[in-house]
Structure formats: structure tokens, C-alpha cells
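To whoever picks this up:

The nightly regression suite flagged Antibiotic biosynthesis monooxygenase as changed. Nothing in the input moved, so I suspect the structure step. Input below, exactly as stored in the fixture:
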Amino acid sequence: MPIAITPDFDGQTVVSTFEMTPGTCSDVLEMLTEAYEQVIRHQPGFLGGAIHVNDAQTRISTYSRWEKRGDFQAMLRTPEMRERNREISALCSRFEPVMYEVAAVF
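Regenerated output under the current build:
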């Protein structure tokens, strides 16, 4: 589903960055894709998301939007996502989810 970015959005935007070697990029991408398809997109408050991979295959960024901050936090606390995040983190040198608010749209 396309994500429309508007300045009046009052929900929660989350951008997560995963750093890894090119050798593990495909594995991390597959695991993230499965997490979105099987779990994340079905959680209460999920509005949409996307996965981006850099050309060097050393970074993956995900972008997701949620109705409320608590909806994202509740998803992270589910037993299934806790296990998935442990597995994904084991393949990454760094994993950082950051919550943002829309400041401007061009």
C-alpha cells in the first residue's frame, strides 16, 4: 500500500536502520520481509511500511507508520517479534529503530 506523507499526520513514524555485511543482506531482507508479511502488517494500528536496501548491500532501512506510538511498542513486545528481532539482530552489526514526527513535506 502506498504511504502518503502529510504534514498533518499525528501518528507515529518509525525508521529502522540495519547494518550488515553484503553476505548477510539477503538473509536479513528475507527475514524482514517475512516479519512484515506474517506479523507486523497484521498488528493493530499498523498503517503501512516499506523496506529499502542500499546499493552496497550493507544497510537496510525500514519505514513504517502507526496510528499511535503504543501500537508500535506493543508489536515489538509480542513474543513472535521478540524472537524475530533477536534472530535479525544476530546477523547485523547494528540495528536502530528511531521514532519520528513529520516536520515538513515537499
